[in-house]
Structures are given as C-alpha cells and as structure tokens.
Amino acid sequence: MRGTGTRALWQQGLALTELQRAHHALSRPAFVAATTAAATAYTSNPRSATLPLRPRRPDLSISQTSFHTSARRYKKQKEAAKGGKGGKAAPAAAANDDGDGDGGAKHPQPNPEEPLDFADVASRLSRHDEHFRDALKKLRSGGRFNPDVIGALRVADPEQRKTGAATAGVTYPLREVAQIVPRGGRTVSILANEAAWVRPIMSAVQASADFNQQPQRDADNELELTLRVEPERRDDLARRARATCHEWRDRVRAARQRRDKLHATWTRGKLLGPDLKRTADKELDKLVKAKMTEIDAAEKDAVKAAET
Fold first, then answer.
1. What is the Cα–Cα distance from 179 to 43, expressed in whole angstroms?
2. What's the Rg (C-alpha) of the chain?
C-alpha cells in the first residue's frame, strides 16, 4: 500500500512543469522554516500561536481571452450598412420605382380575386396626367420665361461645402430659397433669401439646359441676381411639346406593362383562369387606348398653341 502511494506521488512530481518545480523549490524552505517556528511557539503557548498556511501555487493555466469583444459583421451586414454592394447608397424611392416614373408613390394594391379592378392603373395614370399637363401648361404660358420654370430649378445646399458628405446631394427648389420677380421685357430678378444661397443659385442656373447662362449680380443689392431669358422660337416650343407628350406615352406604356406582368404571374400561380385573363387584358387595353387618345388631343392643342 505504501509502495503504491509512493509511486503515485512520484508520478505527480514528474508531471510538474519546470516553472512549478522552481516555485516549489523556492517556497518550500521558507515554508519549513515558518512551520518550525510556529510549532515552537505553539508548544510554549498553544492559544496564541497561529500555524501558517501553505502558500497557494500560482495558477499557471493560460486564460484564453479574445482580442475582439464585438460581434463579427458578415458580408451581407457590411454591404447593407454601406447602402448596398459597392458602397453606394441607393435612394429609397428607387427601391419602389418600377420604371413608370412615379417615384415609388403609393397606389392601390391589385387583387387577383378582382382582376377587373384597375384602380392601381388608374392611380398611376392620374399621377402622370397631373405632371405632364402641368408641363404643357408652362409651355403655353411662356416656356422658359415662366417664373414657375425658373423656380423649379434645383439648388444645392450651401452647407455641403462645410459639412461634406452630411449634406451631399441635398437640393431645394429655387422658389424656396429665393423670390422670382419678372421685370420688363425678358428680364427676371432673383432675390435670394440669404447671401449664402447666391452662389448655389448661380451654379444651378448655369447648369440648367434651359438657361445655360450666368446671372448678373446687382451692384446695389448683394442678394439680387438678374437673369435675361431669350425668347424661344415657335418651332422649339412645338418640339418640346411633342417631346413632353412622347414621354407621357412612355409612362402610360410602363404602367400597362406592369399590370400585364401581374396578370401573367396570377395565371402561372393558378390564381387567374385563362378566360378571365383574356377579359382582363381586353379591359386594360381599352383603358390604355382611351388614355392615349387623351394624350393625342393634348399634344395637338399644345403644338397648335406653340405655333400660333
């Protein structure tokens, strides 16, 4: 029995590392001396003597600590934080824009259980009507000389030079940052609300394809800019009217194609039968043809007004 215990102790001693052996060799003499002194004191006065505790061996185990305390961000999360693949932030409207030019506006949701309800198409066409009829109205009221056309120019935020990316790409309509006052003849005065907006307004007018000129500063008022708008020729006005109506038709076709894709999707999913799909296609075709007739009439009137 004694031989077995001795063998076990001997094996444990072999398992000690070099550092543990060194620590054991250094601490043992001090412990033996302290124990001998304490035993002598205990023999003379057992009540007041205190036996020393054996010093604890240091924990030589290596603690595994991670170098990073934050959770790892995976590739998809990084791309989402940057605004998509390549680090380019996509506009929120572009995510909902299907190419029909409505800027992702909210429209009624089509229902496969009511395939003859074209409220979504009518809503999109109504939005296009409002936009393009307003554009034709501006052409009739003077073309580029119309204060509404000048006021629609987009002006960059002057603070973006100071803040950098914080306001990069932020623009405002000119009519919100300045007053547009028609003068005699073809002259227009632009009165900026603040001096910081003067240079951005000049840049916006110069970059515009309709004006492409540098407004002149007023010698007496640092907030005033003078813009002289050259009259447009009649054939130019007529050409712009035709181009506006051509774009109008493209938007109507895009709205029709969107609904056609829905009909095909419903048919593949067995939500819409073949007979009912043909009926829905015919009704949609009637709606689109009626709208095209309206656009033809509007174009005819706009061209006639431009040529007279």
1. 107
2. 42
Res 291: pLDDT: 96
pLDDT, residue 87, reads: 39
Please name which of 104, 106, 112 lies closest in space to residue 264, comparing C-alpha atoms: 112
pLDDT at 139 over 80: no
Cα of 126 vs its chain's centroid, Å: 27
Say if residue 8 is exposed, middle or buried (CB neighbours under 10 Å; 0-12, 13-18, 19+): exposed
Backbone angles phi, psi at 110, to 5 degrees: -70, 150
Residue type, 235: D
Mean per-residue pLDDT, 66-79:
44
- Facing residues of 163 across strands? none
> How many Å separate Cα 63 from the centre of its chain?
44
Coil, helix or strand at residue 199: helix
| Angle in degrees, CA 171, 173, 176, rounded to 5 | 115
Phi, psi torsion values for 217, nearest 5 degrees: -75, 145
Under DSSP, the state recorded for 17 is -
pLDDT tens digits for 83-110? 444 433 333 333 334 455 554 568 999 9
What's the CA angle centered on 102, arms 101 and 107, to 5 degrees?
145
| Interatomic CA distance for residues 212 and 204, integer angstroms | 9
Burial of 139 (0-12, 13-18, 19+ CB in 10 A): buried
Q: Read off the pLDDT of residues 227-248 as tens digits, 9 standing for 90 and up.
A: 887 767 788 888 888 999 999 9
186: pLDDT strictly greater than 70: yes
Strands (E), the chain: 154-156, 171-173, 178-182, 187-192, 216-217, 224-228
Using the predicted structure, report yes or no on whether residue 273 has a pLDDT greater than 80. yes
**Is the pLDDT reported for residue 80 higher than 60?**
no
Rounded to 10°, the helix 119-140/274-307 angle is 10
- DSSP 8-state class, residue 12: H
